[in-house]
């Protein structure tokens, strides 16, 4: 059996490990346009802030590829997938045939139409090479001021790293708050305050319409008319599934590559996993792209097992994030801004400690939560979401400081802990 | 695999399991020194409410959602022993494992270091220190031959 995996990050590595759980013999080829052994993408902000070295970013030990008998073709692009002849074409004209193919090409930065966006010293912040480019731009241009477009996870991690590098940082965001995808307004205000204390300037409800300067960026012009000087800019508006590789095939693409619970696309023997895929979001009860690391690894693992002949399903997809900025940690999951009144919301807030906890319930079950600056044991809630366990009878305990297994009825608790 | 199980009907919530966990994971292996001179976080959580109490630590579960979620590769499940353990040097304290663990069994370092702390079953010893030192035998170390799913 010949397995080909396009993409060498969380989903691709998950797939290798999934295949090898089932098939120790088959040939695995992993292809990536990045030249590096698998590394932790979320660590690029740590790298930029000089907290970790490139060596320390390795997601798996050096012997991983050998031990798993993987032919790693790194630093080379796949130019075409041919579903009829079951082969992929590489940019150096090599052809690699497959019995089972996994597309795990991740996300690509979304870059809106903006005048001057192609100038030098303007970067994205998704891959290690982006972090390297920013680091070298800072060095070569002796950059002092950066404007970051986007106050999402990526934009703010870039902002944190660049503050730590000693730059003056301004973040421009179209929404009325930071981290709008993972926080509600209350929590976002606390986080914003914390980030401002750390030195980040925010301009909300505005956006960049033009990057100024000749070859290199020297400033930005905002929609409001305001102009800001900068010698570096980061565009972090969002990430979209990197689907270009399947153009010319019949693989169904909605926002991402549409997959079923087995991570199969509509085309036989072609699977997709990770940020490029659009699987099932169990909380929204519909298909959705869930571009987060644990989801990518889990999908890759299940895809790999199935490619090797197992019959596994993955139905645990929902958004969840653990992240922190300047020692302010947060874990959030699921539906955190319920739009209708079929949801019940529990809130606990200690403003002076920047602690905010919110739990969202629907039909007596947890469907989302925010834990800000008090993240301990958050996984119990994640587990309850996955399990869709009714919590009506312990609702009043959920936000207590000492909430734990002791609050559940003895039978359930004993059974859980006795396993 | 052999795991630590709590028998809550015998637990008094005395937290000696925590004390011996800290001691056994210290450099000195000495109770006083471990508490006074070292910064060691216990890998156990003792839950107490009213008359009920029990100790809870990593279940070293088969599904290991913490391992799957770990963004750096620091958390791994040993294929042979089944023990879930982490590489302190690779852990950056992102707390993704805390988000993932349905038992709430992964702790943050209590001394402000950006690193987690969790049960390793005292892998280098015979019996885990918490089990060995529980005065009421409220913790037992045995193989129940069940494969739980997380």
Report on this structure.
The complex is a heterodimer of chains A (419) and B (150). With 419 residues, chain A is α/β, with parallel strands linked by helices. Chain A has three domains: 2-108 and 241-307, 3-Layer(bba) Sandwich (FAD/NAD(P)-binding domain); 122-237, 3-Layer(bba) Sandwich (FAD/NAD(P)-binding domain), CATH 3.50.50; 329-418, Enolase-like, domain 1. Chain A has nine helices and 26 strands. Chain A has helices at residues 10-22, 44-48, 64-67, 128-141, 153-164, 185-197, 293-307, 378-387, 410-418; strands at residues 2-6, 27-32, 70-74, 78-82, 87-90, 95-97, 100-103, 107-109, 122-123, 145-149, 168-173, 201-204, 208-212, 219-222, 227-229, 232-235, 239-241, 257-258, 270-272, 277-281, 286-288, 320-325, 328-334, 343-350, 355-362, 365-372. In chain A, the strands form seven sheets. Chain A has a five-stranded parallel beta sheet with strand order 3-2-1-7-19. A five-stranded parallel beta sheet of chain A has the order 9-16-10-11-12, covered by helices on one side. The longest helix of chain A has 15 residues, at 293-307. The radius of gyration of chain A is 23 Å and the shape is globular. Chain A starts with a strand and ends with a helix. The mean pLDDT of chain A is 97. With 150 residues, chain B is α+β, with helices and mostly antiparallel strands. Chain B has a domain at 2-60 and 103-143. Helices cover 20% and strands 20% of the residues of chain B. Chain B contains five helices and eight strands; from the N terminus they run E-H-H-E-E-H-E-E-H-E-E-H-E. In chain B, the strands form four sheets. Chain B has a two-stranded antiparallel sheet. In chain B, strands 2-3 form a two-stranded antiparallel sheet. A two-stranded antiparallel sheet of chain B has the order 4-5. Chain B is globular, with a radius of gyration of 15 Å. The chains are: A alpha/beta (419), B alpha+beta (150). The A-B interface holds A 14, 40, 42-43, 46, 51-52, 56-60, 293-294, 297-298, 301, 320-324, 329, 331, 333, 375-380, 382-384, 386-387, 402, 404-407, 414, 416-419 and B 5-6, 8, 45, 47-49, 52-54, 56, 59, 61, 65-66, 68-69, 71-73, 89-90, 92-104, 106-108, 144, 146, 148, 150.
